Amino acid sequence: MLEPALRTTRCPYCAAPAVVERPPVPGVPEPVFALGFALTHMAAKEHVARWLRSRSRFTRSGIRSAAPGEVRGVYVPAYLYSVLAQARYRASIGENYQETETYRTTENGKTVTRTRTVTRTEWRSLEGELVSYVADVLVTASKGLDNAELEALEPFDLRGLARYTPALISGWVAEEPSLTLAQCQELARKEAVERVGGLLSRSMPGDSHRGLEHQSRLDWEALDVCLLPVWVLAVKYAEDAPPLRVLVNGQTGAVHGEAPISSWKVLSALVALLAVLAVGWLLTGGGR
């Protein structure tokens, strides 16, 4: 039996991997593209082991010495979004220029006159329009992997995208989209507008700018479901704590996780710092 949120399963009799082709379900789009795994499960475990060892000393005990546990490769659904953006903007543009000014100062008990070169900025208003095609925006389509986690794993090398066929994901766990098209479209539009803002900021003339504002109109939107390769690992670091979930980009090996901080370690470090400061204050005569 296939779990409702999954597209793939294994035969219960021979353990052979299989892909179940569902009949079309309203609101659940079919994948258009898939991006293959380039990182083996052993390499993923090695990346996580290095990541664990590099965590802060303020993380909970056991995390830095923990060994990665169960590893599972998952094809996570995401939307690949592109759009034509037309932005109207306005900003203040700063042009620097230099002047020589005279000033008075005291040298050897005497008042003298000196000159110096100073940089000043002349500001002028600028308004205009930018038309740009925004492509390769990835947003999650999974309730199990939020968009912030997906962004932490990016970038993916989209040059490796292939047209989806069942054979591409046979033998792997593949999740169906669990977020609605409207939810994903809202995420994608927000990210596209942010990219336009970044492009405008980098494109401003002059030596500096301030007060940049823009309004974007988005046309010719395209959203396609693609399956992204992600390794999911469970790290058991303490008997009284749930396993730490760590994610690995199945292409690049980028690692993301949220190692919990130990409050008593932070408090101990703060107390030690205050003690050192107090001793230093006393040694410098502050206690007199």
From TrEMBL:
<protein>
    <recommendedName>
        <fullName>Primosomal protein N' (Replication factor Y)-superfamily II helicase</fullName>
    </recommendedName>
</protein>
<feature type="transmembrane region" description="Helical">
    <location>
        <begin position="264"/>
        <end position="283"/>
    </location>
</feature>
<keyword id="KW-0812">Transmembrane</keyword>
<keyword id="KW-0472">Membrane</keyword>
<keyword id="KW-1133">Transmembrane helix</keyword>
